[in-house]
Design goal:
The protein is α+β, with helices and mostly antiparallel strands. The chain has two domains: about 70 residues, Orthogonal Bundle (Arc Repressor Mutant, subunit A), CATH 1.10.10; about 160 residues, Chorismate lyase, CATH 3.40.1410. It is built from eight helices and eleven strands. A hairpin with a 5-residue loop joins strand 9 and strand 10. Helix 1 packs across helix 3 and helix 2 packs across helix 3. It is elongated. The model has no long low-confidence stretch (mean pLDDT about 90). It binds 2-amino-2-deoxy-6-O-phosphono-alpha-D-glucopyranose (GLP).
């Protein structure tokens, strides 16, 4: 890398370094090692603090990965995940990945105010709470917590202890198919627990999806929160103009 590439511009210095690094990353294979902070600082004629700031952002954005005690490497490309009203299992298959699931919890709880409002039930009514780690090609993608009415879906926790796909169980056992949904996306830092489950650092940027789905008669089916690694996935929504 030549110092000529790091020119004086009005943008912050670290950003110039970051742009320069991004250009370099594009020409490298995933898994290639990135020079150390010290080497980059010398090459780019800047301070290690400036280089570090650029590297930290590139790691948070998923372009680079840091391995403790080893170094910094070019990351695998992000997965593109279209937003459709399909199951994780179907979506993974449509993207050419094999979905797998680790059940973290399957329990009956009492609905609090938020869950009761989402599921159209009374506060205190029984709810199935299912927490799962979702993987695509064995890479941990999301921690997903689903809430469904236990009165409407009796023995659901038992089924979910044996089966991978919630939507397959809903269809086969209860003849329920979600046909409409509202999906929200927000960002949040990973807690220590999510970070451990998703193999990342606490505080890493996450994309948090909230899905509230309804069946054909407009009855609520599920209220789900899914924490995705922000550095692993790009969500894509297809938009159409309401004027056409
Ligand atoms: C996605 C949705 C969830 C839904 C799940 C069902 O992850 N965000 O709301 O519950 O798919 O997936 P599966 O049928 O694979 O369990």
């Amino acid at each position: 890398m030549s110092s000529a590439a790091v020119q004086a511009t009005r943008e912050p210095k670290y950003y110039t370094v970051k742009r320069h690094l991004m250009q370099n990353i594009e020409s490298l294979e995933p898994g290639s090692a990135v020079p150390t902070e010290r080497v980059l600082a010398a090459d780019l004629n800047t301070s290690r603090t400036t280089v570090r700031q650029a590297l930290v952002e590139l790691v948070a954005e998923g372009r680079l990965v840091r391995r403790q005690g080893s170094g910094t490497y070019v990351a695998e490309p992000k997965m593109t995940w279209p937003l459709h009203l399909t199951s994780f299992t179907e979506q993974a298959a449509a993207n050419g990945f094999t979905a797998s699931t680790q059940l973290l919890a399957a329990e009956r709880i009492k609905a609090d105010q938020i869950v009761a409002a989402r599921l159209g039930i009374e506060v205190g009514e029984p709810v199935c709470r299912i927490e799962r780690l979702r993987l695509a090609d064995d890479r941990p993608m999301a921690v997903e917590t689903s809430h469904l009415s236990a009165t409407r879906f009796p023995r659901l926790t038992r089924h979910m202890k044996k089966e991978q796909s919630l939507y397959a169980v809903l269809d086969r056992v209860y003849s329920v198919v979600p046909v409409s949904a509202e999906e929200s996306i927000a960002t949040a830092p990973a807690s220590t627990r999510e970070a451990r489950l998703l193999n990342t650092d606490a505080g890493a940027p996450m994309l948090v999806l909230g899905r509230h789905s309804l069946d054909e008669s407009g009855q609520p089916v599920e209220w789900v929160t899914s924490w995705y690694r922000g550095d692993r996935v790009t969500f894509v929504a297809r938009l159409s103009s309401p004027r056409r």
